[in-house]
Amino acid sequence: MSTKSSSIHGRNEVKMEGEKRKDVESESTHVTLNVKGQNDEGVKVFRVRRKAKLLKLMELYAKMRGVEWNTFRFLSDDGSRIREYHTADELELKDGDQIDALLPQQSGFGPSTVFRV
Question: Where would one find coiled-coil regions in this protein (predicted)?
C-alpha cells in the first residue's frame, strides 16, 4: 500500500491508495422502491435519493391516487410503519424493496352500535 502526500494551501493531506474511504458510499445515491396498494391497481415504481425524506414518495403516490398523502399508512417489508421523515438509508431499504400503502380500517362497531337480543 502506497501513500501520496500533497500540499494544498499549506496543509498536508495523505491519500491512501488501494483502500476505499469509509465516508464515501460504494452504493449508488438512489434506490428503486416498489409501492403496492391494497387494491389490484398494481405496483408503482419510484426512484428516490437515499438521503431524501420519504415524504416526497408518499405525496407523489397519493397524488397519483387522488387523495391526501396522510390518508395512507405506509409499511415496510417487515411490517414497521414508515413515517414521512424517514429516509431510505435510515430504514436500510435496498433496490427492489416493497412498501405497502394501506388505507386505515374503518369499523362499524363502536359505542354507538347497539345490539338487541
Answer: none
Q: From 101, 104, 105, 103, select the one nearest 43 (Cα to Cα).
A: 101
- Global confidence as pTM: 0.65
DSSP labels, 16-52? ESSS--TTS-SS-SEEEEEEEESSSS-EEEEEEETTS
Give the C-alpha distances (Å, rounded to integers) separating 34 from 19, 21, 53, 85.
34, 31, 16, 18
Domains of the chain, start order: 30-102 (3.10.20.90)
